[in-house]
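User: Could you walk me through two proteins back to back? I'd like the raw sequence and the structure tokens for each, with a short line separating them so I can tell where one ends and the next begins.

Assistant: Of course. Protein one, sequence then structure:
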Amino acid sequence: MSNPVSAVAGPVISLGFGVVRVPVGLLAQVTGNGGNKEWGPSLAVDAVEGGVRQLLGSLLGDPGLAAQGDVTDARVQQRTEAAERDQAAQARREVADDRLAQRRERDQEARQQARKAEQEQHQRLEREKQQRQQQEKEREQEHKQAAQREEQRKQEIADEHAHEARRTRVEAESEAVEAERAAAAAKAEALDLANAKEKAKNARKQ
């Protein structure tokens, strides 16, 4: 003959835990875990229910009630393992995401460093180009100044030669004038001498 207590134990347990599940279900809805069968509080309620069925089934000698507890406990175990696998997978995804984020950050830093190095190299090359241009301008200016000094020196030499030529010409002209004067004087003296001789000759004839 079946135990009357066992006959009502199962429904009472179901009713009692059904009441317990109401606030747990509401909390699950609030936290966004309404459809998550592996949510911690839900698993805890099911685990407790399975334990109660197993305990009462053992105390009341009701193998059916104990079997219900075993089934509930097995399901809880499966869901717990699934939850652990999900958590492990989530942890691996988070680790992978962290590594990916770190790699992206390193890549970003590497790109920034590369851009910085490129900019520094471009600036250095630009400075060197400007320096070369400045040096070229300075050399060109020095060449112009040297050419101007050489032209000035040549002009000074030409002026000096022209001055020397003028001085030589003036001296030659002065000497020529002196020679003309001397010749004129000699001619005049000869003419005077000839006149004197002519006068003397005329005087002896008389």
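----
Protein two, same layout:
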Amino acid sequence: MDRIRLEFPVSRLVHRHPMTIRVSDINYGQHLGHDSVVSLAHEARGQAWQALGFPEWNIDGLMSIVADLAVQYQGEGRLGDALVVETAIDSVSGKGLGVHHRLLRVSDDAVLATLRVGLVFAGEQGLAEPSARVSTAIEQAVTAMSSQVTN
């Protein structure tokens, strides 16, 4: 079986969000469950958008909608593990963009999972392209934040 392989674009890193694995994040195998990986990434994505100055539910009057999701599991998280969820954001391309997440265990910097979320933008009339103004503003914010976060 071919496995998915995701690359995390470190040069586009905009945010690091600390979290701890809670009892509600643990599955019957006694490790971090799939649903919680997705939820932790969603929380980190929301925090990253906020840090960039764009609430994810109102980007230039548009909301962002998850169109696709890919997850590559690379390790196991356990109850109480301190994590950092890193977020990197691609450039706007048409009606959407890609957001990447990497879940790292703080104690040993082990990568537990890498995710790529495809977002599309929509308004009341359906899918829409953000204005050139906001696309430029997103790119400028990503560039500014990535230089701060990686230093």
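Residues 115 and 126 are 26 Å apart (CA to CA).

Let me know if you want the two compared in more detail.
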